[in-house]
Amino acid sequence: MKVLTAEMIAKSFEGSAKLDDTYVKYDDGRLHYTHPEAAQFTIRFPKRVEQLPYFVHRIGLLGYEQEYFWGAQIWFTDFGIWNEFQEGIGYQILESVNTAAGQPMSFGKARGYDFRADELVKALGVLIQPMVFGWDAFYLPRGYYEYFLQISHHACVDVHTMSKSYHDKLIKELVAAKLDFYVHPDKSISRYF
User: Fold this and answer.
1) Phi and psi (nearest 5°) for 105?
2) Which of 59, 72, 86, 129 is the most buried (most CB within 10 A)?
3) The dihedral sign for the CA sequence 56, 57, 58, 64
4) What span, in angstroms and rounded, lies between the C-alpha atoms of 105 and 116?
5) CA atoms of 58 and 66, how far apart (whole Å)
6) 150 backbone dihedrals φ, ψ, rounded to 5°
7) Under 8 Å between Cβ of 21 and 35
8) Integer CA distances (angstroms), 171 to 57, 98, 111, 134, 164, in order
9) Burial (Cβ within 10 Å: 0-12, 13-18, ≥19) of residue 131
10) Whether 52 contacts 131, CB under 8 Å
11) pTM passes above 0.70
12) HEC string of the chain?
């Protein structure tokens, strides 16, 4: 695992702006697709806290199996939304993660992480943090640039897909997993389980 500053995250995407529309694009700390079939759907957080670890495992591996995890990047975009005491717990957890990795940096300086292929559990452990503390974040699995996650402090995850075929594949997977999701913005399909 490597702890990343905002500058390091931006540098990791240098050159991606020159690639064609089949790649994810990075602009000002945000991800997006320019592919004409790009779409998104939203998954609500589970209602019960004990379901959160299962939920994080499912969304952290959307569309592929654990043995094909090649690594991922996670970075926090918005925090400080609630009060400093409650969020301070989250900052301390992540600063402890940084220190344990031999990269003692404050959460204010280092808001991103790059995980290797053998660090799935660590990646999912960090991915759960914005859900617990009500922050916004991005999750980009390495090797599967057909989708990325945008975690929101509004208790939901937007799943952005590059193509219609991958979008449809993930919808089928979520139906089978019985997760609560809806498709938007111009489709009125809702699914409640």
Assistant:
1) -130, 150
2) 72
3) positive
4) 19
5) 10
6) -125, 105
7) yes
8) 16, 35, 30, 25, 10
9) buried
10) yes
11) yes
12) CEEEEHHHHHHHCCCHHHCCCCCCEEECCEEECCCCCCEEEEEECCCCHHHHHHHHHHHHCCCCCHHHCCCEEEEEEECCCCCHHHHHHHHHHHHHHHHHCCCCCCCCCEEEEEECCCCHHHHHHHHHHHHHHCCEEEEEECCCCCEEEEEECCCEEEEEECCHHHHHHHHHHHHHHCCCEEEECCCCCEECC
Rounded to 10 degrees, what is the CA torsion of 34, 41, 57, 168? -80
Rounded Cα–Cα distance for residues 5 and 7 (Å): 5
Q: Let me know the angle formed at the C-alpha of 178 by 183 and 188, rounded to the nearest 5 degrees.
A: 20
Residue with tokens 């594949």: 169
**Tokens found for residue 62:** 């959307």
Per-residue pLDDT of the chain (193 residues), as tens digits, is: 999 999 999 898 876 655 566 678 888 888 888 888 898 888 888 888 888 998 999 899 988 888 889 999 999 998 888 888 888 999 999 999 999 999 999 988 999 999 999 999 999 999 999 999 999 999 999 876 789 999 999 989 999 999 889 888 888 888 887 766 656 554 433 333 2
Six token digits for residue 146? 């057909």
Beta bridge partners of 73: 114, 140
